[in-house]
Amino acid sequence: MVNSKIAISTAAMIAIAAAWSGPASATDLSSNVVAEVAVETSAANVIQSMADQAMNELTDQSLADDVRRKKFVSLMDRYFAMDVVSRFVLGRYWRSISEAEIEEFSVLLQNYLALNYANQFKEFNGEQFVVGDETQKNKDTFVDSQFVRPDGPPVNIVWRMRVFDDSYKIIDVSIEGLSMGIT
After folding, report:
1. Is 100 exposed, middle or buried (CB count within 10 Å of its CB: 0-12, 13-18, 19+)?
2. Which of 2, 22, 73, 146 is an S-S bond match for 154, by CB 3.0 to 4.6 Å?
């Protein structure tokens, strides 16, 4: 049960799964897209780097809770397009608020997620994150991965990424086929 909870919380941290509650159409987000930009690294490498950094920085048993939360937020800042994630969460309501309010919501969302998920990384024990293939579809790249648990079946995760300012950022994640951006 604990390993199942760890797998889900890991995916939630990495995917910001718990907070994505409202759908947004691709056309809602098209203004944020930078098409066909020369990117220095592959989407799969970005996911692997994020997972390595999360495991190295967040599983340290000696970290104080507030330090772990700050590191968690820092990872979200680096690897997620939080403005897009916030728009997913807000759904159709994002159009009725200002950019400043969206930015404020994004910060609050990060803090909420950090408070709810960062400390669960203390429970890690033998789990592995394996990155697989990547597939291009229109403006997005999808990266397959698995969260492998020592005493349970692996959790399949697909990362939806898009290029922003010459680098890949996560905009959605599907865990066992369930898109967090749509649910």
Report:
1. exposed
2. 146
pTM of the model: 0.74
Name the strand (E) or helix (H) holding 175.
Answer: strand 167-175
Q: How far apart are CA 163 and CA 175, in angstroms?
A: 21
CA distance between the termini of the chain? 24
Which element (helix H / strand E) includes 157? strand 155-164
* Residue 143 Cα to chain centre, angstroms: 12
Q: Residue 33: helix, strand or coil by DSSP?
A: coil
Q: How far is residue 131's CA from residue 108's CA, in Å, rounded to a whole number? A: 30
Which helix H or strand E contains 35, and what residues bound it? Answer: none
Which residue, 120, 124, 146, 123, is CA-closest to 133? 146
Q: Which domains does the chain carry?
A: 2-179 (3.10.450.710)
Name the DSSP letter for residue 180. Answer: T
The three-state secondary structure class of 139 is coil
- Which pLDDT tens digit goes with each residue over 69-98? 999 999 999 999 988 888 888 889 889 999
Provide the edge-to-edge strand list for the sheet that holds 167-175. Answer: 128-137, 140-148, 155-164, 167-175, 178-179
Residue 20 DSSP one-character state:
-
**CA gap 148, 139 in Å, rounded:** 29
